[in-house]
């Protein structure tokens, strides 16, 4: 009889595939006055997973990302990031993720290198490794040759690439991307997705992203969460969602699940009307 204990053998075969939840969200809610922007949502993201968070304009995606990244305080519910509660362990939670916001956060009046350096200092990237890490990342997003140029002279695509390099500086376990490819040409979008997938593969970095380019989710996401009017209406792999909607592409499935109505970003149509009157 083998003297190798059975549970040890099981451990060896099981552990490489064993994964844990890098993000756990339960009952997350955000109210702005009486308006409920995010309404009691719960979901999990596995370590190493690429998750697409899709929804029409005003669905609550950015509000959710802001709560996950400690920018906004939730009205209710709980969040765990890399095992930390961002409300009680803000620093540990913040060091667990990088973020590329929907609105640009790079400083136009600094060079690409200076932007990276400022972020490295803010995030406590050790002085000895700072320069090397910045070089690696600027090379990764193909901006090393432009490192001394002011960001105000960069194209939209170059700025997004710099944002991504910045988000990756401190080796985050999770990368949040809010519409990382908005308004970019297909070549640049493709490049950006190559960087993201490469980081996901090589550093086992989990990715949580939003996009209105549904084909990006179809191509790159392991799983998709669809949110509408602040509520999660569907969760699954792209294949599962297509099957659920009886469609053969994810964009059609998305439209079927969320409806055809164009969304106004404002809370209430009357409010929009009042604003127009107020401007007169
Ligand atoms: N600070 C705020 N005060 C009041 N309402 C807000 C605030 N921020 C967001 N909202 C409202 O909350 C809802 C969700 O907005 P959010 O920005 O999360 O949508 P989104 O899904 O990111 O949309 P988009 O695809 O257009 O970026 C919208 O109705 C928006 O008007
Ligand atoms: Mg948004």
Secondary structure layout plus pairing:
Blueprint: H1 6-14, E1 21-32, E2 35-46, E3 50-54, H2 61-68, E4 76-81, H3 90-96, E5 97-100, H4 112-122, H5 127-140, H6 156-168, E6 174-178, H7 186-203, E7 206-210, H8 214-220, E8 223-228, E9 231-236, H9 238-245, H10 250-258, H11 269-279
Parallel strand pairs: 3-7, 3-8, 5-6, 6-7
Antiparallel strand pairs: 1-2, 1-4, 8-9
Helix pairs in contact: 4-5, 5-6, 9-10
The structure holds adenosine-5'-triphosphate and magnesium ion.
The site of magnesium ion has 4 residues, from α2.
Q: Would you write up a description of this structure?
A:
Helix content is 41%, strand content 22%. The model is unreliable at 1-17 and 269-280 (pLDDT under 50). A hairpin with a 2-residue loop joins strand 8 (223-228) and strand 9. Helix 4 (112-122) crosses helix 5, helix 5 (127-140) packs antiparallel against helix 6 and helix 9 (238-245) crosses helix 10. The chain has helices spanning 6-14, 61-68, 90-96, 112-122, 127-140, 156-168, 186-203, 214-220, 238-245, 250-258, 269-279; strands spanning 21-32, 35-46, 50-54, 76-81, 97-100, 174-178, 206-210, 223-228, 231-236. The protein has a domain at 21-106 and 175-262: 3-Layer(aba) Sandwich (Rossmann fold), CATH 3.40.50. The protein is an alpha/beta fold. Residues 32, 35, 37, 55, 57-63, 102, 265-267 line the site of adenosine-5'-triphosphate. Residues 61-62, 102, 178 line the site of magnesium ion.
């Amino acid at each position: 009889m083998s003297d190798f204990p059975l549970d040890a053998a099981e451990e060896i075969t099981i552990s490489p595939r064993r994964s844990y939840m890098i993000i756990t969200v339960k009952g997350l809610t955000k109210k702005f006055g009486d308006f409920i922007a995010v309404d009691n949502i719960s979901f999990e993201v596995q370590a190493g997973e690429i998750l697409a968070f899709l929804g029409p304009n005003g669905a609550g995606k950015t509000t959710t990302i802001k709560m996950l990244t400690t920018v906004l305080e939730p009205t209710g519910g709980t969040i765990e990031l890399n095992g930390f509660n961002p409300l009680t362990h803000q620093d540990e939670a913040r060091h667990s993720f990088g973020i590329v916001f929907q609105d640009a956060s790079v400083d136009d009046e600094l060079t690409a290198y200076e932007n990276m350096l400022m972020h490295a200092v803010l995030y406590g990237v050790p002085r000895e490794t700072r320069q090397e890490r910045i070089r690696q990342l600027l090379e990764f997003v193909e901006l090393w040759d432009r490192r001394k140029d002011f960001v105000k002279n960069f194209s939209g695509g170059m700025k997004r690439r710099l944002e991504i390099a910045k988000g990756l500086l401190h080796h985050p376990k999770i990368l949040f991307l809010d519409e990382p490819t908005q308004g970019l040409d297909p070549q640049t979008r493709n490049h950006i997705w190559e960087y993201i997938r490469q980081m996901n593969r090589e550093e086992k970095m989990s990715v949580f992203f939003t996009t209105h380019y549904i084909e990006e989710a179809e191509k790159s996401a392991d799983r998709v969460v669809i949110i509408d009017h602040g509520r999660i209406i569907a969760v699954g792999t792209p294949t599962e969602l297509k099957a659920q909607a009886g469609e053969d592409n994810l964009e059609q499935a998305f439209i079927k699940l969320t409806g055809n109505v164009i969304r106004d970003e404002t809370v209430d149509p009357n409010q929009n009307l009042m604003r127009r009157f107020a401007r007169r």
